[in-house]
Amino acid sequence: MLGFELMKRSLLLLLLSACFFGKSQTFSSYRINLVSFVNPQSTGGIGSDQRKYSGCWGWFQSSKNKEYAIVGSSTGTYFMDISNPGFPNLCDYVPGKSNCTWREMKTFQNYCYIVSDDGAPNRFQIIDMQYLPDSVHVVHDGTTYFERGHTIWIDKDKMYIGSETKLGGSYESMTIYSLATPTNPTFLRSLKTDFPLISTVHDMYVNNDTVFASCGNQGLYLFKYNDALNTFTQLGSYINYSSGAAYNHASALTADKKTLVFCDEVPTSLPIRIVDVQDPANIIPQSTINPYPNTTPHNPYMIGNRWAIISCYEDGLNIYDIADPANPVFAGFFDTHPQGGISGSSYNGYRGNWGAYPFFPSGLILALDMQNGVFLLDATQTFIQPIGFTENAAMETNFQIYPSPASDHINITSAKNVNASVIISNVLGEIVLSQQLSFFGKQKIDVSQLANGAYIVNLKTKNGSLTKKIIINNI
């Protein structure tokens, strides 16, 4: 029997792998490069728009120095090794409820928690990923905890479920569970117990037990979960900010916790909003962004305090520099959905780029299009070069920076005597190493103390500048 199950799984992965494809198709972009894209679910699209994918997330396996894309589809969840991003490898697939529009997931330690909000019968899944890249193991696949959830967030060792429905139909706007035992979540509290007037929490961004709750038509609410008392208290709210109806959908917080970026999904074509949340009792609007007049923003993500990465349905993935929240600057885009939106002939509403994951150590960005599949993107040009910046072409000829991947050091070679400054930054733009050099020939730079991941090396001389992306892999 075991041999038969292994044979079935091998056949399934072989069939799914046959659905992978490369970079032959052309997609509009600006300052974001396509590394690869795959369409693992060749059939099974639902609805008139043939949507096949929904939420996605990522996981870094530090023990093996590997990165994985976790992809929700209308039939289940795919686990892909993207450590070699030009050639993603499908590791395993976990079936779920079929014909699903909604599937979302988050990770904690080596576990992936998957929810779906499609009609009953449905189920909550817990997946053990420690055996990747070989396979994943299903720990829980049932309704013991709850049957349906629209969204999920994990903060420290707590799991938040938005719009939870238990077996039998009992509904909660938001619930919280302890993951002290990751394979056996323990129910802690329902938001309804403390705030029964909140009818729904569509999504939530949680940082250190502070919950930025996107409450649909009721607006944005800030709550604090008090661990010692096991209660929620309200810190503030931001409502009636739109001249018409607006469905507060999802938000993302800057690393310094000063600025929140959020999207209103319904109706279509509403702007991205940026607000100051330093005083939760007095949230101050900073600015709004409309990528294009008919763009519908869906899910926002923040890298550090500067980069807002927004999944914008038919207009793909858009990146904004919000170092000055009152004056956001368009920095780059990649259109995952050329059949509609600004690149297509018309807008058709809720299709295209559902979500993204921009937090891999390598700096790679995962973007998931509902119809087209999985995109692996390189936004190095967006993050390291200001708009209008042009490097001196002679620098490419006179200098080399290598190797990549590097382990304990990198080399910089010069064809002549030179005085130069070298600045190494991480993908958040934070400087991790800075040196002044005077050399001819080859100069070694010690990088043995830097964590594994992607870095930007900027070499400056009086004659110009050279910028290179390197990967550090200290095994």
Your description of this structure?
The protein is 7% helix and 49% strand. With 475 residues, it is mainly beta. The chain folds into two domains: 16-384, YVTN repeat-like/Quinoprotein amine dehydrogenase (Methylamine Dehydrogenase, Chain H); 393-472, Immunoglobulin-like, CATH 2.60.40. β20 (247-253) and β21 (259-266) form a beta hairpin. The longest helix has 16 residues, at 2-17.
What are the defining features of this structure?
five-stranded antiparallel β-sheet; 4 helices; mainly beta; Immunoglobulin-like; 475 residues
Summarize the SSE layout with pairings.
Layout: H1 2-17, E1 20-21, E2 29-30, E3 33-38, E4 53-61, E5 66-73, E6 76-81, E7 89-95, E8 104-108, E9 111-115, E10 124-128, E11 137-142, E12 148-155, E13 158-165, E14 171-178, E15 186-190, H2 191-194, E16 203-207, E17 210-214, E18 220-226, E19 231-238, E20 247-253, E21 259-266, E22 272-276, E23 284-289, E24 299-303, E25 307-311, E26 317-321, E27 329-334, E28 353-357, E29 365-369, E30 373-378, H3 380-384, H4 393-398, E31 399-402, E32 409-426, E33 431-446, E34 453-461, E35 464-472
Antiparallel strand pairs: 1-3, 2-27, 3-30, 4-5, 5-6, 6-7, 8-9, 9-10, 10-11, 12-13, 13-14, 14-15, 16-17, 17-18, 18-19, 20-21, 21-22, 22-23, 24-25, 25-26, 26-27, 28-29, 29-30, 31-32, 32-33, 32-34, 34-35
